[in-house]
């Protein structure tokens, strides 16, 4: 498998310009979330963070208690393995891999900050139908060439000592079967598989690499985030 299949999406063929767009709630139209949805997001985020913390604790010899301030956090020691690793691989892979235009910030540059990269909205106007939504890219994110065992072996052969996968970027698409992402995850749409789980197993079973996850808490167009942003991020959950 060539490296381009890792960096870019597995999408191929003519760009979808005429089919009827699919809709994913706030992904295409503003709406008000229910209180149960708010709690669902909180629970899902906490579960992911706890999973990451529990993974890290397996490799820690000591336990430290920190307080939520910079003086305390800056006292955390740099793990020796990380200081010696030198080479690691950080993977951004999600729905934004389908257009493969600009970067993982594609949706924001299209709908949020149109001044910084005017070529992005211009590209969408020229190549796609007027009612095309970002969520419409999701079903083309198929990952049909994704072989986690091959990825793991390639990373190890490259000399990397650790791998970090973006489990969820600011677009909100989850690369695992999240139960609170409104059909906006890799099991319900697109690949129809647990990308996080599959790569986790392959890295763990076939290599000695350390594996971690990047999880973005905020989502550009999620009403919960926009509501909190409007009050200068003072919302208490």
From TrEMBL:
SUPFAM superfamilies (UniProt xref): (Trans)glycosidases
Domain Glycoside hydrolase family 29 N-terminal, first and last residues per copy: 60-235
InterPro entries listed in its UniProt record: FUC_metazoa-typ, GH, Glyco_hydro_29, Glyco_hydro_29_N
EC code(s) of this entry: 3.2.1.51
Any one GO cellular component localisation term in the record: lysosome
Keywords: Glycosidase, Hydrolase, Signal
Annotated GO MF terms: alpha-L-fucosidase activity
Family to which this protein belongs: Belongs to the glycosyl hydrolase 29 family.
PANTHER family in the record: ALPHA-L-FUCOSIDASE (PTHR10030), ALPHA-L-FUCOSIDASE-RELATED (PTHR10030:SF37)
Job description of the protein: Alpha-L-fucosidase is responsible for hydrolyzing the alpha-1,6-linked fucose joined to the reducing-end N-acetylglucosamine of the carbohydrate moieties of glycoproteins.
Name of protein: alpha-L-fucosidase
């Amino acid at each position: 498998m060539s490296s381009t299949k890792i960096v870019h999406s597995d999408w191929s063929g003519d760009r979808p310009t005429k089919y009827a767009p699919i809709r994913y709630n706030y992904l295409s139209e503003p709406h008000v979330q229910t209180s149960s949805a708010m709690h669902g997001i909180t629970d899902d985020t906490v579960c992911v963070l706890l999973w990451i913390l529990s993974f890290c604790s397996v490799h820690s010899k000591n336990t430290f208690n920190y307080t939520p301030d910079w003086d305390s956090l800056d006292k955390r020691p740099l793990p020796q393995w990380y200081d010696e690793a030198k080479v690691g691989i950080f993977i951004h892979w999600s729905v934004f891999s389908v257009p493969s235009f600009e970067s993982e910030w594609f949706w924001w540059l299209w709908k949020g900050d149109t001044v910084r990269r005017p070529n992005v909205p211009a590209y969408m106007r020229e190549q796609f139908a007027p009612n095309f939504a970002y969520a419409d890219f999701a079903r083309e994110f198929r990952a049909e060439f994704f072989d986690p065992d091959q990825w793991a072996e390639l990373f190890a052969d490259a000399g990397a000592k650790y791998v970090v996968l973006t489990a969820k970027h600011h677009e909100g698409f989850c690369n695992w079967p999240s139960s609170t992402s409104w059909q906006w995850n890799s099991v319900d749409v697109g690949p129809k598989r647990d990308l996080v789980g599959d790569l986790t197993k392959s890295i763990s079973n076939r290599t000695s690499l350390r594996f971690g996850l990047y999880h973005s808490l905020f989502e550009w167009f999620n009403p919960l985030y926009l509501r909190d942003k409007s009050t200068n991020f003072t919302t208490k959950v």
